[in-house]
Amino acid sequence: MSFLTFKGGIHPPEFKESTEHLPIEKAIEPSTVAIPLQQHIGAPCDAIVKVGDRVLVGQKIGEAKGFVSAPVHSSVSGEVKSIVNMPSASGGEVLSIIIESDGQNEVDPSIAPKGKFENLKPDEIISIIKEAGIVGMGGATFPTHVKLSPPSDKKIDTIILNGAECEPYLTADHRLMLEKPEDVLFGLRAMMRAIGVEKAYIGIENNKPDAIEMMRKTAAQYGNIEIVALQTKYPQGAEKQLIYSCTKREVPSGGLPMDVGVIVNNVATAAQVAIAINTGMPLIQRITTVAGNGIKTPKNLVIKLGTSMKDIVEQCGGYAEKPGKILMGGPMMGLAQYTDEVSMTKGSSGVLVFTESEAQEPDPSACIRCGKCVEVCPAFLQPLHISNFSYNNMMENAEKYRALDCIECGSCAFTCPAKIPLLQSIRVAKRFIIAKKRKQS
């Protein structure tokens, strides 16, 4: 049997065996949560509670400031102790609301089912998604209501759900598709109704045959939803690569999925849409894989947002030995953390802990002109040239070589025999180019 794929990409070791067969567990209730007011791409929220207030589960505590933003809600009931800057998983600090739980988990009275989605108008579904604070839960954290509100000149005819979970170690989406396939399909159908499309795909890598079988069985009653078996290859779950694999449509340079009539969301995002409609509960918790050789007991956990990474590690038996590197997310695109005091957020798909020996960075050597970085680049770039331009502060040249088309998957750096930090230097160029464009606009 042949499996669909894209050009380029790599095959890193999967390292999923420690958690792929472990059912999802509910994490221990946190005694205190620190809920960041920015857990999404776009403008941060404004706090709408004050110190001393009692808040309830599901209560909105941060109001979105702009269209590209998403509100945040309390994951516990209890008292607001402070509103202060706390370490952020994305680096630096972020204003956060510190809530001491009273252990009662009293739900806000506004939380109630929204009714059958078939009876909801498209704009009502989008409003529910917006008010629930739902964002892309594969890690990108782009507000979902924005994706579902394309410009009038962009005709969308297809939705694709990303169930590839191509990052090594991560198995949260895999377990979700096995244990809650109905939620995934309910959320997908609700989003299809919201934007008026008749065709959808769910792309799943073929290293998850049980998930493919489960999703096909559950989706059999819906003739317009196709479960697509994808070749296991990284970055199969990247938007442009997933679109090509499922539809053979190519997003143009500098373009977006909507330019080829497609919207892409994660399976976990779809499941959260189902929760918001069926129960009224906003996004206050998520499934996260906790794994790596630095963790004593790997798990897939449902974790309340605002729980500290340190508490989650302790629930998994603590550190197996002194950690050498802690990542939020996967090993290819996740972010290294300087402290385990950071809070779990809407985009926390994984917590990975590596030992000191695993975390040692190799010393780079001179480029041997092998061309492997060009061969594996899924965006058809020349990573070495862009990297060299970045090192030499030749940012205009880096832009001409389409630095902004880099999806930051890290395939080039992974495959480089000289161990040149290609991705890191390309990121520098991208940040410089984007900052310059903002100043000029």
UniProtKB/TrEMBL annotation:
Q: Which Pfam families match?
A: Complex1_51K, Fer4_10, RnfC_N, SLBB
Q: Which residues cross the membrane?
A: none
The answer to whether keyword Cytoplasm applies is no
Q: Where along this sequence does the record place binding of [4Fe-4S] cluster 1?
A: C367, C370, C373, C416
Tell me the membrane topology, using the record's own terms: Peripheral membrane protein
Q: Which UniProt keywords apply?
A: 4Fe-4S, Cell membrane, Electron transport, Iron, Iron-sulfur, Membrane, Metal-binding, Repeat, Translocase, Transport
Q: Where in the cell is it found?
A: Cell membrane
Domain 4Fe-4S ferredoxin-type, residue spans: 358-389, 397-426
- Entry EC number(s): 7.-.-.-
Q: What does the note accompanying the cofactor annotation read?
A: Binds 2 [4Fe-4S] clusters per subunit.
Q: Does the keyword Ribonucleoprotein apply?
A: no
Q: Which cofactor does it need?
A: [4Fe-4S] cluster
Detail which positions bind [4Fe-4S] cluster 2. Answer: C377, C406, C409, C412
Instruction: State the oligomer form and interacting partners.
Output: The complex is composed of six subunits: RnfA, RnfB, RnfC, RnfD, RnfE and RnfG.
Physiological role? Part of a membrane-bound complex that couples electron transfer with translocation of ions across the membrane.
Q: Per the similarity annotation, which family is this?
A: Belongs to the 4Fe4S bacterial-type ferredoxin family. RnfC subfamily.
Q: What is this protein called?
A: Ion-translocating oxidoreductase complex subunit C
This protein's gene is called rnfC
